[in-house]
Structure formats: structure tokens, C-alpha cells
Amino acid sequence: xxxxxxxxxxxxxxxxxxxxxxxxxxxxxxxxxxxxxxxxxxxxxxxxxxxxxxxxxxxxxxxxxxxxxxxxxxxxxxxxxxxxxxxxxxxxxxxxxxxxxxxxxxxxxxxxxxxxxxxxxxxxxxxxxxxxxxxxxxxx
Length: 140
Description:
The chain is of the alpha+beta class.
């Protein structure tokens, strides 16, 4: 797992209450509720003159829950919306010289999958923006 993705994972895992397991790339439990984080690779958004770069790392948070009635859908969307709001105000601790700039929502929480047994998945897509200094050997 990329260190920046791990920092986001730790932030999200700390946000959810105990009893809601959070997994990376896969759900940690087949039974709801559960949360999954998937991360993309960092991409350069802007090159600085000093050799550094503004980077973005896309990630998606998916909440799996049991649907008993429509209030469960609203509760799941409200929970993911609250998470997105908090993530935009909280920066993860990055290592390796990367400096967090912010987290933005690129796709708001919505229903992403619905299964016959009454299990639904809701997802939100976000991006971590961070500054990265190029290593000396890469500049030469």
C-alpha cells in the first residue's frame, strides 16, 4: 500500500466508530456494515520551477449496508456526506516529504450497487492533493 494511501486509510479508519470494519481494496467482512477504500496512483497536476510538483491521488470510499427501508439509504448517504465534509477539513499525516494541500470531493456520495439480498453500497470519490519535492537524483 502506498504511504499516502495508508495515511488516508488511517484517517478514514479512525473516523468510523468501532464495530464498522474498514478494509483496503476489499471489504474486510462480507456482512454489512463495512467500508472499503480504494486508491489510485498519484498523478502530476502542476510542475513547479524548482522541480517539485502538485500531485493528486484519487480515492473512493464505499460503504456497504443492509437496506431495511428508505431511511437506511438516507442514513448511509448522510454518513458518507459527513465523512466527505470532515475529510475536506482534515489533512492526513503524510511521510516521505509529501505535504498535504487538501482533499476534494470529485463525485458526491451516491448509490453505487444494490444486491438482491437487500445489501446496498454507497460510494464517494475524492482526491488528495499534495506537494511533492523531486529527489535530487531525479533532477539531474
